Amino acid sequence: MSAKRSKRRIATVAEACDVLDAIAPIALAQSWDNVGLLAGDHDAPVRRMLCCIDLTPAVVDEAEAAKIDFVMAYHPPIFKPVSRLTIPGDGAESAVFRCIRSGIAVYSTHTALDAADGGTNDVIAAHCGVRDTEPLEFVDDPRTDECKVVVFVPPDEVERVANAMFDAGAGHIGDYSRCSYRLAGHGTFLGGEGTNPAVGTRGKMERVDEIRLEAIVSRPDVPAVVAAIRRTHSYEEPAFDVYPLCSHPVRGIGRRGKLPTATTLGKLARKLKKACAAPTVQIVGSPDQLVTRVVIVVGAAGSLPFRGPLSEDDVIITGEIRHHDALTIRRRGCSAIALGHWASERPVLIPLAARIGAALPGVEVRVSHRDADPFAPA
Q: What residue ranges define each of the domains in the chain, with the CATH number in brackets?
């Protein structure tokens, strides 16, 4: 009897969103941005995905012709509140309408991918030969939602109470479980007339040996852990505390790092022009200026590179630079390379598509051929 071939389960829009959020966490996006799933049915199947920078009419044509189910558009085609979705239309909203009509989900990563490890800025850093980078800013990780629960337990009850807390969800740190800290000490109490203390006598000041037992608890699990303490602790009124924890700082937007070897501004600009397939590249500074460090902000750098110290050894690498920012760069004595907004962001798409494909093996992930720089050399 021949074995039946098992069918590969089809991924859903929700699963594709989860993969993208793991690669470029939505929580890392700038507060003004509009990232995540912009249009689509969470339960719809995803067999083919298309990655692009801009959701233009040409990209929608490509998606419809290729029977794409899910478009990852780096720039959000819906950015401000939308009052109408119509065809024809001058804005990107008409492209979103076409996608909705064709059953194509639309997702944007934008500044979440700029901040994420392996994202837009890290790809440009790798093209520069820079491996060890630091972000231009650190941010609190909004995904951290943990507390520390501390309870004071008689020594002979510690294991019982601790196990009950663990079973209720306490004690997880990364890939480790049943984590706790224990410290011996002394507790005191004076029970009133209406009490029935498990240890000692009411109306008498008592001093007892206790163990301080503490464990990390996810905020949603706190009620169950507290209930486990009350259920297993022998005291009539167990003493416990719940402390909300500050989130750990994570890498934010932008990157800075040291070049493997010193080079000239002109040589680095030519190298990046080729690596990014940029039609034109502009520089601020002398082509012969020697640079040893890079400050990378893809797209439009704005004032972000100026938040830290800059010297003649630094080169700002970005997509576009405003005139007055270029003057500031000259006054600071550093230099800059403007690759073009689209050209500075486009290099991330190939490695991003590979990462998505590895996480969703049943999905065909491709990079758009119709996605194009709106500017062209004369």
A: 11-116+348-367 (3.40.1390.30), 128-137+253-338 (3.40.1390.30), 146-245 (3.30.70.120)
